[in-house]
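agent> step 3/5: call structure_predict on target 'RIB43A-like with coiled-coils protein 2 isoform X1' (Branchiostoma belcheri).
agent> reason: downstream docking stage needs a structural representation; sequence fetched in step 2, passing through unchanged.
tool.input:
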Amino acid sequence: MYKLDLPVDLKQAAAIERRRNMEKQRQSRIFNAKERIIGVDVQALEQQVQDRAVREETEAARAEAFAADAIRNDKVVVMMEQRQEQDIRNLNMAVNDFRKNFQVPETRREFDLNDPDGLKKDKPARLTDDDPRCGISGVQKLDGEDLNFTARKKYQQEQMREWTKAQINERNASDMNQKHADLLYEMKARELDQRACELATAEEECRRQINMATKNFNLAQQREKEEQEAMKRQQHQDDNYTELSNHIYGDMLTENPAVAQSAFGPHRVITDRWKGMSPEQLADVRNRQEQQRQEKERLAMEERLRNEEWDKQRVDADRAAVILERREERLKKELEKQQAHENLRLGAEQKAHVDFLDKEVYTNEPTAQYFMQFNKTSR
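tool.output (status=ok):
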């Protein structure tokens, strides 16, 4: 018979119990994710920390770059606004100077009615009628019967025509100057817009373009100022010539004093002896009218040629824009077609790869019994 009541080896039992407790403690340490320190990839964690630091530095540098770009764009916008305000101030100053120099009260048509010194400057209407020998009871003068009425009326009509021509010429010159200034301003604005768009691509190129634009703007302003000064000088000279011409070829200076000279004074003429203007004066008037007609035709021809040139440039620009737009559409269609072919090729490759994985690689699918053998022990 077998002997079953053998004595228990206490030492061996204590060793087995100790190993079991150590295994339970080890499992508690390993299977607890919060307290586990065995098997941690320290290098991977350090690499993650470094990658995160690099990513944060990159984000900070990117934010600083965007901030610098925004500040630069703000500066450009402020500079453009300042230039626009300066142009407006210059234009207002030019308008005020023009009003001050060419629209003074003395040149107005009704200034003789509002002249404060009119009574001091006024001359006697009729020397003979105001003669002391002509009393009130003589009835020598009635309203509208002065002897100088016809000459004064004719002189006023001539003066009115001259004033009207001068105002028309001044208005045409002002309109041309305004159109020229608007054209320069529009061209400058387009150039500045183009420079502002190029600022986003490269800082160095932007600075160079801004300097070039500033230089061109200053040169344009200088040329415009010189042209305005030259036009003012030319206008002043033309006004002087016109005034001299009016005095030289006027009716009062070209009248023949030997035929129509009155005995009552050099400023009087005898109306029944005055024969009107001389043939030379009539020929001069006709020549001047012919010159004005030719000048008007020349200006009309220049305006028509200038308009034709602008129309041609506008048509060429529209044609170039249409060609560029069609070229961009063709390139866009080609890119879309290439992208579609590329997507089809990638889809076919991906489908083939998935079929290969499903049919060739992932043929031995693990079962639940395979996963049940893990996490049984700490070893």
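agent> step 4/5: record observation. Strands lie at 261-262, 265-269.
agent> proceeding.
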